[in-house]
Structure formats: structure tokens, C-alpha cells
Fold these 2 entries.
Entry 1:
Amino acid sequence: MSAWRWGGVLVGLTVALLGVSLMAGSTGWSVPFGAEHDALARQILWDIRAPRGLGAWLAGALLGLAGAVAQGLFRNPLADPYLLGSSSGAALGVAACLAALGVGPAATGWAVRLGLTGAAFAGSVLAVLLTLTLARGVQHTLRLLLAGVVVGVVLGACSALTMLLVPDIMRAMQAFMLGTTGFLGWSAVQVMAPVCALTLCVAWGGARALDALSLGDATARSLGVRMGAVRVWLVGAMALATGTAVAQAGLISFVGLVAPHLVRGRVPGTQGAVLMLSALAGGLLLLAADTVARLVIAPQELPVGVLTAVLGGIYLLWRMHRMEASA
């Protein structure tokens, strides 16, 4: 199937799942027809379910795009914002910002959301730079992943210490660290939508450089690729996408790792197609996980980050089994 057809399939599934997510609530299923005549139903539909579903899709799209950029840039199929420590750095930035401002992650103000995104972006950039410094570049796959794990653990410990020092934010931050879409509202959507468009444009602009980079640094330079500039721009796009998603929805693992794999397994092609389809696949994955998380233990909600971690781990084990079987 061509990339265009897969894109159409993913868009169609996303539209259908958005409709399903509008009907999924903490008390079970409810059809939104006639909500315009009921003030409470209208408020639940347009002020809670609609921004939450759309926000979950945007956060997943940002993570899927960040994972595709990381895997293409570092030429490593296991690279993703979570394993490189980028997500932990973003979470530390959010924790430090919340401690300084004295507000919780459920704050709905547009300015607060923008401030959290800026802090998460700074933390994400810092984490990636630390990982690259410890790994001494991107040439050694195992060293890069180990450095990412070390950075993630250390920065995660710093986030936990920040919560201990400022107990007022501890309860809300616990849900945030598990990954939750319960804080998403229209202000979060207003922040994520333009960032998603911007990072998609930057990543699309670097797609041809990623194609050349897949042949090796020397070949890419011979084709006229300015390696330093390309890496700075793409690392910046990856950090901005990761930081924005983490600032709004907390730590959500494996979406950035799994989405590009799902795309590459079905649509072998250029990096441009992989980047765009990974964003669509990431959005679809997180939207589906959010819908299931609302219903699986209703009326309670399962943190969506817990669900993606379990499903992502199962997927990785299945991939490892297939790789060993085909070796």
C-alpha cells in the first residue's frame, strides 16, 4: 500500500476514533446527540471530552514525530525521546516551573501552559545534550542508549526530589509522572496545535537530509548536507515536540518508539513519508489508549502512561521474538 493510502487510512481511523472518544465517559457510553439542548451534556461534550480527545491525538502526534526524528537522526531504531532521556528532562523542567510558580499541572491558563512548555523544552534540550556528551556522539548505539538511560534516571530522581521539597505539587505531579490526559483542555490544544504544525514543517524540511544521512555521514557530506546545521535544527524540533507533549500530558512512554516502527513495517519509503505517517500513527495510538484508559476500570480512570507502557513493552517483546526467529 502506498504512503498516501496509509495516510488516508490513518486519518479515517482517527476521525472514527475521535467520534468514539466523544461518547466515552467515566460512567460508560453516552451518545452526544441532543447535547445542544442540555447544558450539562453540552458542557461535558465540548469542555471536557472534545478537548481531551483532540489533545490526546496532538500529544501522540508530537511524540510519534519526535520518535521518527530521533530514529532517523541517530540512525538507531531504538532511539526515542523516552529512552534518550529527553522526556525525563522535560518532566524536570515542568516540575521546576511548577515549584517556582506554585501552581499544579491542572492549571488551565494559556500563559501557564505556555510557560510549562518553555520549561519542558529547555529541560528536554539539556537532557539530549547530556546524553550526547556522555555517549561521545551518535556513532555507538549501545553507548547512546546507556547514556540515555543514565540521564533519564538521574533527571527522574531530580524531579522526585523537587516534589519532595515542594509537597503542595506532589499529589498532582504523581498523576503527571504516570502520564495522564486528564489535564488536557482547550488551552493545551491551543499550545500543542501550532507547535505540532511548526515541528512537522521543520522535520519535513530536514527529510531529504535524513535520507542522505541514512547512507552515512561521509555520503551525506558529499551530497552537500550541512551536518551541523541539520542536527541542530532536528534536535531542536525533537526537543520542542517532546517538551510540548510532556508539558501537557506528562510522561508517556513507547508511543515515540512504536509509531515509527509501525509505519516502516508497512510503508518503506523516504523519511518524509515516515515522518508524516509516524505523527499520524502516534496520534492514533495515544487517542486509542486514552479511550481505553477511560473505560477499562470505569468509573475510575487508568493513567494512560501506564497503559502505553504495558502495551509498548508487549510490542517490543513481540518484535524481539520475530527478530530472533528470522535471524
Note: The first helix runs from residue 3 to 23.
Entry 2:
Amino acid sequence: MTTSHTTVGRPRPRAADRRRTIRVQRATFIVAFLVLPVTVFVVFIASPFLQAFYYSLTDWRGFSQDMNFVGLANFTSMFGDPVFLAALRNSLLLCLVLPTAVLAAAFLIAFTVTAGGPSVGHVRGLRGGGFYRIITFFPYTIPAIVVGLIWAQVYDPTRGLLNSVLTGLGFTEFASFAWLGDADTAMAASMFVIFWALVGFYVVLFIAAIKGIPGETYEAARLDGAGRARTAWSITLPQILASIQSSYVYLGLMVIDSFGFMMVLNPQGGPAYSTLTLTQYLYMTAFTKGQFGDATAMGVFLALVILIYSGIIFGIFRLLGGDRRRGAGA
């Protein structure tokens, strides 16, 4: 009776008070989840980029406050520099070849490990699939600098493991072959090192994505007579297309950089600049030549290249239907 009396006697909040409470909660939510993150983004991401763009329009030497406004002179001289054009060509080659090779290999390994088991009974992966995941993921745990040092020793012309193995197999012409010292092989050898270091991460990523596909889908395909190749192409690949899209963008950004790998394998950009990348040349221009205005111009251009690359990838996957599948999956 006391409780009922207290409830009945308590004044009910007015509609105006309820609306005021809702407005306060909404304002608090917007400040916490929108205004604060946008402020952090503007201060720590957009602002440094705008500052870099300003420096790219000057002749700043990097070690003093003195700088003169030169307009677009750094950009025009950049495109007249044959070394820069060689670095641009190499970076574009990396982002065209490596993401495709890494993701194709990762998909094949992930599908084989996940659905490459017995042909009868429930669809399951290879026996000991965890072992394959570990040995493929292991190189990804090694820092890029260490990976570069290891493979620099493997490629060593006189004491390297690769030439020793090839010579032992009878290919005596490789007895002292300089894989990183020949303009025809330096880029391919460097690409293989990056491939070796990165493929394991995407194997694990794709295995997780494939395990999210219902087993009934695979069993229905098997009952319909679909082989493993058909299952991989027509069922698995479309189901994980959104994961492949994200991986393609992320991997493309990584290989356009490739700074750690390339600086260890080819500190000067390889023979005839055959392995020089944009990030390497940017570093050399800034910290070797002391031309920070030119270097920031390259950085601004590199940011535009990355934006264009990301836009192209998203456009291609939109045409392939990746966004629709991701929306359906969500």
C-alpha cells in the first residue's frame, strides 16, 4: 500500500522535460560519437596533409624556417625527372602484380586447406590444416627489415643458399649469379620476397571467410556433381568477394610503400633504378639531398596515386557485385 501510494503521489514528468532529456542525450551522443572523432581526424590527419601540401609549394630545405613560395615548380620538375618516372613505373608495377599474385595464391591455399579433404562425407579440409596455417602465417610475423636481411643473404652471389642449391642441381651458370645485382632479375627477386612475407596473412584471412560459408552450400554443390574447381570458382569466390576487395585495397597500399623490404634489399634502388620505389626516392630526396619541398610534392602525389588506386579497386568490385554481396551478408 505504501509503494502504491508513493507511485501514485509522485508527480509525473512533463512532456517538455522528457523532450529536454531526449535532446540532451542526443547532443551527448553526437558529441561523443561524431564531433570528437571528426575533430581528431581533422587535427591529426587532415591538418598534417594540408601542411604537407603547403610545404610542397615551397623550396623548404627541411632544417630551417626559411622557405620561399615556388608554386607548382616542384611538381613540374618532378615529372621531368627520369629517376622519379622510373620510381613511379616500379611502384605501379608492384601494385599491379603483387596484390593479384598474393591474393590468388592465398585463395588457392585457403580453399585447399578448408575444403580439400575427402571427396565423400561432409565437406572438410585437409588433415592437419592447422599446420599449413602456421607455416604459411609464420613469415608474416617477421619484421620487414629482418625478412629483407634474410633474403639478401639467400640471394648472395657467392655464399647465398639459392645459388648453392641451383649449382648443386646442375645449373652451373648460376654459380655466382647476382639476383639483386642484375637489372633483369632484381625486381622479380624483390617481388618474391614481399610475396613470401605477406601471403600467409591472407591465407588465414580467407580461411576465416571460407569457414563462414554454410557447409550445406558445399554439400548441395557436391550432390549436384560440382568438382572442387567448380566449387572454388562458382561458390567460394563469390561468397568471399567482399573480403577479397578489402584485402586488395589494403595489400595495394602496402606494396606501393614496400619501403622496409626495398631499403634492405636494394638501398640505392637496384641496378639502373630497376627496383627504386616512390617511397625510397622520396626518402632519398628529403634526407640525402635535403630537398624537403620536392619530397613533400612526391608525398602529395603519392597520396593522390593511392586515392586513385583505391577508387579503381572499389569501382571494379562494385561492377563485380562485391558491395551487393556484402550488403546481403550484413
Note: Confidence is low (pLDDT under 50) at residues 1-6.
